[in-house]
Amino acid sequence: MTRASLDKQPADVAAMFDRTAERYDLLNGLMTGGQDRRWRRSVVEAVGARPGERILDLAAGTGTSSVPFAEAGAHTVACDFSLGMLRVGVRRQEGVRRLGFVAGDALRLPFADGVFDAVTISFGLRNVADTEAALREMRRVTRPGGRLLICEVSHPGNALFRFGHRMHLRFGLPTLARVSSNPDSYTYLAESTLAWPDQAALARIVQAAGWGGVRWRDLTFGVVALHHATNPL
């Protein structure tokens, strides 16, 4: 198939990202007008990685999002189910200390129970076939008292801004994606964004997966939201 369906079959989604790996970071910057860098800085601040901690960065792709945690002194695992993305990441992040790359599916993480102080996932949760099951699996590998940070697309609260955002997703993003080696993947990303639950609905899913202290904060008027939670003691 040329485009991953919204059924989000793991092999299809992984193959889609394999084909975009080399230009993924560049196109993210173009399509967000550079906002992706600000969003990732917000993630780094919210996670608050400390020296000696163990951080799992899921859907890490090329590891761009993982590097700041390692540079803060945390032992960081960049995990993704796209081997193409991981290969690019291993090459680009060569020499970054305390950073390792692991292939893994968010629904069956290859880690023991309670081994991480924090788990974070940026712009990857909506690509998982079963959101609540993935969140339960993240909780399994997080120590009691450990923390979760989700950075994901969302829906602006202002009606006018929400309309403009939808127009960008329906028409602007597919136009920009024509410079990609695999434009169909960005059509999928637009569609998956439109189909994603809003901030409150995602918070309810996180809570249903057993996480506590769930809260969120909007970025860029709600185009993106950060959801925080902790693993109950």
Q: Topology of this protein?
A:
Blueprint: H1 10-20, H2 24-31, H3 35-47, E1 54-58, H4 67-71, E2 75-80, H5 83-92, E3 99-103, E4 116-122, H6 131-140, E5 142-153, H7 159-176, H8 183-195, H9 199-208, E6 212-219, E7 224-230
Parallel strand pairs: 1-2, 1-4, 2-3, 4-5
Antiparallel strand pairs: 5-7, 6-7
What does this structure look like?
The protein has helices spanning 10-20, 24-31, 35-47, 67-71, 83-92, 131-140, 159-176, 183-195, 199-208; strands at residues 54-58, 75-80, 99-103, 116-122, 142-153, 212-219, 224-230. It is built from 9 helices and 7 strands; from the N terminus they run H-H-H-E-H-E-H-E-E-H-E-H-H-H-E-E. Strands 3-2-1-4-5-7-6 form a 7-stranded mixed β-sheet, sandwiched between helices. Helix 7 packs antiparallel against helix 8 (183-195). The termini are far apart. The protein is 42% helix and 21% strand. Strand 6 (212-219) and strand 7 (224-230) form a beta hairpin. Residues 1-6 have low confidence and may be disordered. With 233 residues, the chain is α/β, with parallel strands linked by helices.
The backbone outline, from C-alpha atoms, is: globular
How many helical stretches? 9
- Uncertain spans: 1-6
* Average pLDDT over all residues: 85
Helix content: 40-55%
Counted beta strands: 7
Radius of gyration: 17 Å
Q: What is the beta-strand fraction?
A: 15-25%
How would you sum up the major sheet? 7 strands, mixed
By helix and strand content, what is the structural category?
alpha/beta
For the biggest β-sheet, the strand order reads 3-2-1-4-5-7-6
Distance between the termini: 44 Å
Regarding quaternary structure, what we see is: single chain
